[in-house]
Amino acid sequence: MINPFAPIGRGVLAGLAEIGRFAAFAGRSAASCFAPPFFLGQFLRQCMAVGYYSLPVIGLTAVFIGAALALNIYVGGARFNAESFVPNIVVLGITRELGPVLAGLMLAGRVSAGIAAEIGTMRVTEQLDAMTTLSTDPFKFLIAPRVLAATLTLPLLVLIADIIGVMGGYLVATYSLDFNGATYLRNTFNFLESQDVVLGLVKAAVFGFIIAVMGAYQGFNSSGGALGVGRATTNAVVGSIVLILAVNYLITAFFVE
Fold first, then answer.
1. Could you tell me if 217 and 26 are in contact, meaning their C-beta atoms sit under 8 angstroms apart?
2. According to the model, what pLDDT value does residue 2 have?
3. Which helix H or strand E contains 67, and what residues bound it?
4. Residue 3 needs a FRET pair 20 to 30 A away by CA distance; which of 21, 110, 114, 256 works?
């Protein structure tokens, strides 16, 4: 008789093998960031591509999320006569959760996909093999600058997103919900603690590392021409999103405990 558990076992073993390959790739990518030679020009170009050019989408996302969050908290709080807690919950939700998570998800769609497509195209056109033949390590020249840029710039983007998101909630609260502007800001600053901001920035740095490494991993291991590059791009986005949500829970649980 055919063993009904054999496909399950093969799937589990394949999944564990893929996790091991990704972990080894991530470790080599991280080590490449701290070992010479360093390609400063590549790093600065990636900071522009990952950080500066992502500002519009991060800003728009943050302002609308802050505005929608303020409206929903007001509606929910009104059921318990707790409308005054709107500024407190808005700033806490944005700095600890929504700011880093939504920024990470937006960059997963923009940056991780771009890295996977770029490196994947270089793989299927044998440019990576040519670099190795010319004694240029692809990890140091291509992957390390992208990993460093994403890890360092995403916390800055999240900090900007926190400010814009809080101001989005402020605008809705003052112009639509009849809150006093000075009171709203005072409650916001009095309730906010430094550890809330630090937690969000730590998450952002980890998410940036995940986004860059996942995109590079999928692109580096792509095959099969244009179809393989498209598949690698899709896998990079999906894998980044899943890892961001899972790691977000783990970091939150660690800080809470």
1. yes
2. 65
3. helix 55-78
4. 21
